[in-house]
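Before relying on records like the one below, remember that each one covers exactly one chain. Contacts with other chains, cofactors or solvent are not represented anywhere in the record.
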Amino acid sequence: MQLVIISGRSGSGKSTALNQLEDIGYYCVDNLPAALLPQLTGELLRAHYSEFKGMAVCIDARNNSRDLTQVEVVLHALPESIKSKVLFLDAAESNLIKRFSETRRKHPLSNNQRSLAEAIAHERVLLEPLAAAADISIDTTDLNVYELRSMITARLGESTTPGLSLLIESFGFKRGVPTDADLLFDCRLLSNPHWVSGLRAKTGRDIEVQKFLEGHKETGEFIQQLRIFIEYWLPYYARSQRSYFTIAIGCTGGQHRSVYVAEQLFTALQENYPQAQLRHRELTRLDEK
């Protein structure tokens, strides 16, 4: 049986992830005491819950703090037939504060002595054992509900093609580095279309920007060297029991160079990695405006 343990700070999207897994066929339990996980999985195995694709449980800071420190022990105590994965969600603290302010919900760790900001920071400390054990980490700072649901399905839904699942993501350094990147490459050394009249408002998906970048020899050389490096080393990452891998490509604003490079790499890698996904972090913001 497949077991997904969902964790992360409050406001990061745990409920959305749990609901999505329920929608695609998982048996789901929210706010499970970590110490009860072995008993729950054992009972489900004995009861033959074969109609479910797997089981998903949310274990977060509402747990006893002592139980959270024993997460690794609990995972090792699971029956051998359980294939477990830990999904850890998080977001920038400023975004978490904003989400709580908008919903007017009370943070589970806040009280008269601890402010919202202090509660959010303390929560990260409590959840560090789960963050360290994570097989999949997702930064939800820039994801809307629909994007997160789609990403959960792509990463944990039923797969028809075995192998490493890739996410290739473009981003802008001025908005911060993706915290869930496994490999990160900086393409700010390439000529910048931002400074060319008529190209500033366009993106790396527009033919005018593509022609500009392709007109500089170093662009093709940069992409070719990246492709050689990635194609050579990805099988080694796959052999280390990794099922999910994120490659982040950054430029200054995340609109021109990184988008073009990510598109080229995605096309080149799709043949060997048909489960690959492509995401342009900053273009999502532009599309929402």
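DSSP finds twelve helices and nine strands in the chain.
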